[in-house]
Amino acid sequence: MKIEIIGDVAEYYVQTLCLLFFPGAKFSKKDSDDSHKATVVVEKKEESISSTVTITYNCKTSTKSYEQVNDENLIERTRIRIAVGKAFLAAGKAVTGVSPQWGIMTGVRPSKLALKELNEKKSTKADAKSFFQNEYLVSLKKASLLVDIASVERKIINACSKDSCSVYISIPFCPSRCSYCSFVSFTSNRLLSLIDDYMEKLTDDIKKTFDLIKELGLEVKTVYVGGGTPTTLNEPQLKLLLDTIKAQTNVDNLEEFTLEAGRPDTITADKLKVIKEGGVTRISINPQTLNSEVLEIIGRKHTVEQFYEAYELATKSGIQQINTDLIAGLPYDGFRSFSETMDSIIELRPSNITVHTLCIKNAADFAKEKSSIYSPGNVASKCVDYSQLSAKNAGYIPYYIYRQKNTIDNLENVGFCLPGCEGRYNIYMMEEVHSIFACGAGAVTKCVSPEGTNIVRVFNFKYPYEYLSDTDNSKINNKFNTIREFYKNL
Q1: Residues 54 and 62: beta-carbon distance below 8 Å
Q2: Residue ranges per domain, the chain?
Q3: Strands 48-57 and 60-69, bridge-based pairing
Q4: Which of 219, 256, 322, 441 sits CB 3.0–4.6 Å from 464 for a disulfide?
C-alpha cells in the first residue's frame, strides 16, 4: 500500500493505522499504484493540531478530517497521533465498513497506558474507561478489559522493589515447526545435534549473568525458561540447566520459576520429575486447540490424547501451577470447535489459561495464506469474546494483555488466572517493570531504569550456530559491558 505523509507524524504509526483496516498489507515508497493509497496531512495551529486523511482502496475513496484542541495534559506527539488516528479511523470506516474494537489504540502494550491513567492521573476505573472510549475510540468492552487488567497488575507492580529483576533463558529448539510460528527455533536433526554444545555455552552464560546481577546489587524475582520448547531437552540436559540455575540463586526465594513445556509430545514423567526437583513452580502445556484435524493442519505433531496424558502427568508431578495456551482464529477452527476446546480446558482447572489471537508474521508458514486467513469469514472475534466471558464465569481473572501487528481482527492476547496465580514474569516483562537479563541465542536483554523512563535493549546472536561461533565470548562480554555502562549511568 502506498503512503504519502505531509507534516510531522511518524510513518510507522500511519502504517499501524493502515493495518487496522488492511491486515497483512505491505508498504513501499516505490509503489506507483494509487489504487491502494493513504494520504495523511498534519497541520500545527496555534490552538490545535488538525489532520486530514484520504484513503483510496478498491475504487472507493474517503477524506476525513479531525482537529485536536491543544491540551496541556497531552504532549504534542500524543496530540498529533490522536488527530491523525481519529481522521484515519473515520476515513477507514467509510471505505471498508470496518469499526476496529480497539479504536486508534496501537502498540504492543495497551495496559501501560491504563496503568498511567490509574497511577499518574489517579483516575478511577470508571474515569479510565471513559478516557479510552473518548480519546482512543476504544469500545466499552475492550476499555473495561484493559482497565480491569491494569488494576490487577498495579497491585503486583507497586509491591515490586526498585532493585528487582528477572532472568530469561532461551532454549531455541523444537521437535518440529508449527505453521503459525515465527520464533527462532530449530528442528532439523543437524541443528538439534547442536544442543549439547549449546548447553555448555549457555550454562557459562547463565553463571556470568547471575554474577553480574549480584555485582549490580539486584535481586532476581522470576526466572523464565522459554523457547522454542525447553522440554526438547532430554533429562540429563534439563538437569544440567536447572542445576546451573539452582547453583546461582536460591530458587526457593523466587516469586516464580517458569519452564515452557509447550509441546505435549515432549513431556514425560521423568522430565517432570527433573523439572520439579529443579525448583520450577510453573509450566506451560499448550494444546493450542483440542480439534485433531486442526492440530494436523497447523503442523502440531501431537494428538489431543497426548495433551491430556501430559496434563495428567503434570498434575501428578506436584508442580504448583500449570498454564495452557490456546489460539483463536486458527484455519478451519470454527466457533463451535474453539468453544468446545475452551470449555474442556476450563474443566481441567489449570491455574492459568492464555488465549492468543492468530498473528501472521512473515517468517511463519501461514504467511503464504494471508488472504484466506484474514477473510471476513474468520470467527476469531467471536471466539475471543467467548473465551473472555467463559473464563470470567468460571472464576478466572484477566491479568495481562498484549497486542501484535497483523493479528486477525486486530484483537488481543490475554492471560487469565485463578485469583492469586498471576504469572509474575509476564507482568514484569510486558509492563517493563524492571530489567530482564537474557541468556542464550535469540534472547534480548532489556535494561530498565528504576523509574522506567530509560530502556536499553541488548541483543544476543539470533541463531544457535552464531551463538556457538562466538568462541572468545566477545558478543557475551559486550552484552555485559553494555549492561554495566547502563547501570553506571543511572
Answers
A1: yes
A2: 1-99, 103-147, 160-439
A3: antiparallel
A4: 441
- What single-letter DSSP state applies at residue 186? B
What are the grid coordinates assigned to 25, written together? Answer: 498489507
Q: Which fold has domain 160-439?
A: pyruvate-formate lyase- activating enzyme (3.80.30)
Distance of CA 246 to the CA centre of its chain: 27
The rounded radius of gyration (Å) of the Cα atoms in the chain is: 23
**pLDDT value at position 406?**
83
Record the cell numbers describing residue 389, joined without a space.
Answer: 466471558
What does the pLDDT read at residue 126?
95
Residue in 197, 191, 198 with CA at minimum distance from that of residue 171: 198
Rounded mean pLDDT for each run of 10 residues along the chain, 490 residues in total: 93 93 82 85 94 94 95 88 96 94 93 92 92 95 97 95 97 79 60 90 97 97 95 96 97 97 94 98 96 90 94 96 95 94 98 93 56 66 97 98 90 97 97 97 95 94 91 92 96
Pairwise CA distance, residues 146 & 129, whole Å: 8
- According to CATH, the superfamily of the domain at 1-99 is Ribosome hibernation promotion factor-like (3.30.160.100)
User: What is the DSSP secondary structure assignment for residue 460, as one 8-state letter?
Assistant: P
Beta strands 321-328; 282-284: pairing state: parallel
Spatial separation of the C-alpha atoms in residues 227 and 165, rounded to whole Å: 20
Measured CA to CA, the distance from residue 281 to residue 318 in angstroms comes to: 9
Q: Which residues, in sequence order, are CB contacts of 182 under 8 Å at separation 6+?
A: 361, 362, 363, 364
β-strand partners of 276: none
Q: Which helix (H) or strand (E) holds 297?
A: helix 292-297
- Whether residue 311 contacts residue 322, with contact meaning beta carbons closer than 8 Å, is answered with yes
Q: Over the range 43-82, which residues count as b (16 or more CB within 10 Å of their CB) and which as e?
A: eeeeeebbbbbbbbbeeeebebbbebeeeeeeeeeebbbb
Q: Sheet holding 164-171: strands in order across?
A: 397-403, 412-417, 352-357, 321-328, 282-284, 256-260, 219-227, 164-171, 435-439, 444-448, 455-459
Determine the pLDDT at residue 293.
94
- The DSSP symbol for 363 reads T
- Asked whether the CA dihedral 270, 274, 275, 279 is positive or negative, the reply is positive
The cell for 484 is 554495566
Residue 56 CA to chain centroid, in angstroms? 32
